[in-house]
Amino acid sequence: MRLADFLPGCHAVLHFGLFVALLLVETAAPRHPIPGGRVRHVLRHFALNALNLLLYGGFAWLAARIGSMQQHHPFGLLHWLSLPSVISVPLGLLLLDLCDYSFHRLEHQVPLLWRLHRVHHSDPGLDVTTSLRTHPLALICCWLYMQAGLCFIGGPQWLLVLYFGIGAFVSHWQHANVELVSWRRERVLAWFINTPRVHRRHHSRAAGDAGCNFSDVLSLWDRLFGTYRGPADDSVRFGVEGYDAPSQQRLSALLRSPRYR
Question: Which residues neighbour 45 within 8 Å (Cβ) at sequence distance 6 or greater?
């Protein structure tokens, strides 16, 4: 079996396993209460994710076409360098993480992208299901941007699948409503990975906090480009001002939210 055939199934199993494990742990021992009720919160995000899952068939079809074009018309940095896989794969993943970081910053700086991304940030109670809280149009924009990045990097389609799998794994952990390790231990990890306490600051509604800690996987980019800030304290309030009303947290309201400035 080729690696390209193996990755999607492996990604799905690991992704689902970690998600369910964190969901059970945070249900038994939550770090903070969820405004509006836990059950509604979870079901709302499951419903939004179900809509997004419908897009993945189209993504897979387009990825196959783009992959075919890449085979017939090789292009990009990794193709030109002709490096061995032991170097090209980590380098490709590193550059994809940089692409992800740059897109995340654009989501906070470009008004239209922010209105789409605001759906994710307007969650007043972070938990593992917040990692599923993405507007379908935001998902499409991200996928297209990362495909463009992959073309310039010159990596195969399975490399992007691998990166998205790693990103989903980290995202579940970052948003989970649990304390898995003490800050003393997490602080060591934070030198390398954008950890939960660090990511919570990005979700803070305090002025300026959403403009930091953009890295999705490696904290390297925040440190390199001066957007890293330390972890949020226990008094952090999540969400976006003006989007706390229960009527604004319904699925239909989340889907309509980008229409409003």
Answer: 129, 130, 132, 133
